[in-house]
Amino acid sequence: MEWVxxxxxxxxxxxxxxxxxxSRNAVHSALFLLVNFAATALxxxxxxxxxxxxAQVLVYAGAIVVLFIFVVMLxxxxxxxxxxxxxxxxxxxxxxxFFLVFIAVAGYSLVMSGWEAAKGLADYGAVERVGAVxxxxxxxxxxxxxxxxxxxxxxxxxxxxxxxxxxxxxxx
Amino acid sequence: xxxxxxxxxxAAVIFAVGALGVLVRRxxxxxxxxxxxxxxxxxxxxxxxxxxxxxLDGQIVVFxxxxxxxxxxxxxxxxxxxxxxxxxxxxxxxINLLRW
Lengths: 172, 100
Hints:
The complex is a heterodimer. Chain A is mainly α. Chain A has helices at 2-22, 26-46, 50-74, 90-113, 127-136, 139-161. Chain A is 72% helix and 0% strand. Chain B is mainly α. Chain B has helices at residues 4-24, 28-53, 57-87.
């Protein structure tokens, strides 16, 4: 049963990630990103991490993808003369070569190391248990994350709200 | 039960596709999306290994990574909007103000 779900959602996640890279329209990329995030949330569910699956849907699919689509709409969906500059065509093949080497090395080392047996406790990723660990043993990192979020919020407001003459152009 | 290895392989492939996107695409927004995707793949390895070892520590790390990712997206998209306003392009090859 787990095999069926793993195959289904794994293929979905892969299709989403490839779609982000190959589609020329930035809106399509954002939607493929949504597919990838949703499939990952379902994989989390298959892995027994219910809380994280929920957080994934809320944070990634809900907030981040919406922000991306907002920005694509805001800056105009320009189709940048994409896929590496024409004067350096070898760069694309170098990137593909890097990709293949990465896959080969990762696959070889994973197969050789043999992560076979999984212990897997029953419903160990439920909200209750994650919350208990988070607030007892990981309280300080949790608080630090909230401080970082506050700093990011203030920084984003300052970045976006201040109006000033464009960089590199003389002031009128 | 699916062996942990397959989850790790899937995550490695998604990560590699994201890295390929960062290398090949020139649109700053798409590069940013690919970075998010790579982070997501790393999260998948964390959750798979958390199940493998039967502990919750990996899941806590993923939760913190999600918080950092949200912060990163807020700042990064602010920078992208500022960039589009000032330079009228999102092509990272054209954004070379610091080059001499």
